[in-house]
Automatic annotation (TrEMBL):
Organismal lineage: Bacteria, Pseudomonadati, Pseudomonadota, Gammaproteobacteria, Oceanospirillales
SUPFAM superfamilies attached to this UniProt entry: alpha/beta-Hydrolases
UniProt-recorded name of the protein: Alpha/beta hydrolase
Keyword Hydrolase tagged: yes
Native organism: Marinomonas transparens
A GO molecular function held by the record: hydrolase activity
Keywords: Hydrolase
Superkingdom of origin: Bacteria
Length: 203
């Protein structure tokens, strides 16, 4: 959220070197609600993929929720595997505690306001997944103030427990903070492992 496609450029570079065709798509994460992003922007990225090629997804944070919404209303016949980095799959207590603070909506937009932990929040309204999903959660933080609002362990934005999802294929926890998950070399290695094998590496 509130990031550009440049935040995924290292991931893009590594996956291209692995032979993947990468669509690193920028979208206005703080301008619209989750449904609008899923209906109006994600289809434009998917349309750039060849219909006869398996389509995998790598998401960060809000992107995981947008993808879940998209796949809940679209049948993607050539869907492969999904890796989510730090997804608030059960929402975040940070939103619960700050959503009524002046300026929160201005910074995080309509989509950010939808990421609470109540049963009616966008993530909790989507239900389980029925496709291969690997989730990487962080347990380090560079934001101790926000971490005080979260159950430990957490990555400064979402607790490890709330990244989990019914139907997920695999789940690991790494010592990385939320904003750096997509650029960490070990995280990228694990993304490659899941895309290749459908499971994360265990040492």
């Amino acid at each position: 959220m509130a990031r550009t496609d440049r935040s995924m450029d290292k991931m893009e570079e590594v996956l291209k070197a692995e032979g993947y065709t990468v669509i690193n798509y920028d979208y206005p994460s703080t301008r619209y609600d989750i449904t609008t992003i899923a209906k109006e922007y994600l289809p434009k990225a998917v349309a750039q993929c060849k219909p006869d090629v398996t389509v995998n997804f790598v998401t960060h944070s809000l992107g995981g929720i947008v993808l879940r919404k998209y796949l809940s209303i679209n049948m993607l016949e050539n869907l492969g595997r999904v890796v989510m980095l730090g997804p608030p799959n059960k929402g975040s207590e940070v939103v619960d505690k700050l959503k009524n603070i002046p300026g929160f909506k201005l910074i995080n937009g309509p989509a950010g306001m939808q990421l609470g932990t109540d049963d009616s929040s966008a993530p909790n309204s989507l239900g389980p997944v029925n496709y291969p999903v690997g989730i990487i959660a962080g347990r380090s933080t560079i934001n101790p103030i926000l971490s005080q609002m979260l159950p430990n362990p957490d990555d400064g934005k979402v607790s490890v427990e709330r990244t989990k999802l019914e139907g997920m294929t695999d789940h690991i926890v790494v010592s990385v903070s939320h904003p750096f998950l997509m650029r960490d070399k070990d995280v990228i290695r694990q993304v490659k492992a899941f895309l290749h094998e459908g499971a994360f590496e265990r040492r």
